């Protein structure tokens, strides 16, 4: 997604800002996406977007309600601004438009597209089991319960909600034509035209109840991890002719530039998943074992409580598996079948409770989480970057900006995400929580965990080699969440984990 300007005034401010910082990023070449993190350290950091929606990361969440949008049907009397910002075609939206079905109210700001090229109609940012669609639409909203405008919201951890729509080539799309009609008026960077309002809802797929949900980031610099992502399962279509118009009409260069640069292939590559999970509001139609259900938020709070104030010895001995990535749940599924069914039935209820502030306050775990300053605070990425940059300058370690920022935000973001069931608990987060407990037990637990995770990684690597059917892309190594299926090991007691202990 893009965080870019709506009004001429803001545009001017950002242009000045860009000029001062020499900030001109592109998708390819010397300023291309592999170099974004040199100027924009969050681009090399935690919880980046887009990602590949890989089947084995999906978790069914029965509490995910259908997306509801308000006032998307705009009157033709409403004037919208369509612009070419050099990275995309962007349409300003009415501040009356909103998403009403999330925990906060999110007000619409703009929509824009990412697409491939005439010769290669593959330019979506999110992919589904490595399948890339022709294009992708992003409708960007900000948290208007907490922030006065999108500029204030963009660098906050709970600032934005984006609706993503995958686009494939097929039937002619009349709603898309409301934009395409005016595209020749914005061929060059910084050009803008006024366009009449239309029914924006018609750009979304018919079904708003089936979607992927995860915690991620802006997909363009400065890449702040501030986005609650909703990507609809069902793509919309545009005709081949419509796709070709989009892919060939625009330039990323200004009108006066002597060498015009075509504007296409404006998508970011998929990013490492880290410890994230992808919640889905639907069950997969096919798939060997169906879709796993998320573990209950109540259980998750209890685990954090135990890490903060409970008996760490117990965790190290009996409950270690609770701390391991949730793919390993498959392993225990047999033993706890009844429990598991009950758990998923209780899930809807306990998630509701999580949302009730008075119950949330009574929770012991949360009180301690709060004390540590974890999970409840909103992170403000700009001020954090200034603080970290200042500290690094004092110790002459400016080159460690990317890693320093990642270390600063990852545990908190991971913990928040874990409590919302959208992540596994990562080892750095556990270590971070354990810092408040300088005891032998903490060291022992850390040691047991490190060992258990190493073993998981070893055995899963071995297993991947034996399973040519399983598809892995380049990022799968970032998730340590593979555990051998028991049928892969006829003698589970031969696992190295069993006899090292
Ligand atoms: C956004 O709100 C902040 C805080 O009220 C204000 O300082 C800023 O000027 C506003 N920005 C825009 C673009 O309206
Ligand atoms: C945890 O264990 C790992 C490996 O044994 C070690 O590198 C790390 O420093 C330990 N961390 C803490 C907080 O004790
Ligand atoms: Zn986008």
UniProtKB/TrEMBL annotation:
<keyword id="KW-0479">Metal-binding</keyword>
<dbReference type="InterPro" id="IPR001148">
    <property type="entry name" value="CA_dom"/>
</dbReference>
<keyword id="KW-0325">Glycoprotein</keyword>
<dbReference type="InterPro" id="IPR023561">
    <property type="entry name" value="Carbonic_anhydrase_a-class"/>
</dbReference>
<comment type="similarity">
    <text>Belongs to the alpha-carbonic anhydrase family.</text>
</comment>
<dbReference type="Pfam" id="PF00194">
    <property type="entry name" value="Carb_anhydrase"/>
</dbReference>
<dbReference type="GO" id="GO:0004089">
    <property type="term" value="F:carbonate dehydratase activity"/>
</dbReference>
<dbReference type="InterPro" id="IPR036398">
    <property type="entry name" value="CA_dom_sf"/>
</dbReference>
<dbReference type="InterPro" id="IPR018338">
    <property type="entry name" value="Carbonic_anhydrase_a-class_CS"/>
</dbReference>
<dbReference type="GO" id="GO:0008270">
    <property type="term" value="F:zinc ion binding"/>
</dbReference>
<keyword id="KW-0862">Zinc</keyword>
<keyword id="KW-0732">Signal</keyword>
<feature type="signal peptide">
    <location>
        <begin position="1"/>
        <end position="22"/>
    </location>
</feature>
<comment type="function">
    <text>Reversible hydration of carbon dioxide.</text>
</comment>
<protein>
    <recommendedName>
        <fullName>Carbonic anhydrase</fullName>
        <ecNumber>4.2.1.1</ecNumber>
    </recommendedName>
</protein>
<feature type="region of interest" description="Disordered">
    <location>
        <begin position="325"/>
        <end position="361"/>
    </location>
</feature>
<feature type="compositionally biased region" description="Polar residues">
    <location>
        <begin position="341"/>
        <end position="361"/>
    </location>
</feature>
<feature type="domain" description="Alpha-carbonic anhydrase">
    <location>
        <begin position="23"/>
        <end position="282"/>
    </location>
</feature>
<keyword id="KW-0456">Lyase</keyword>
<dbReference type="GO" id="GO:0005886">
    <property type="term" value="C:plasma membrane"/>
</dbReference>
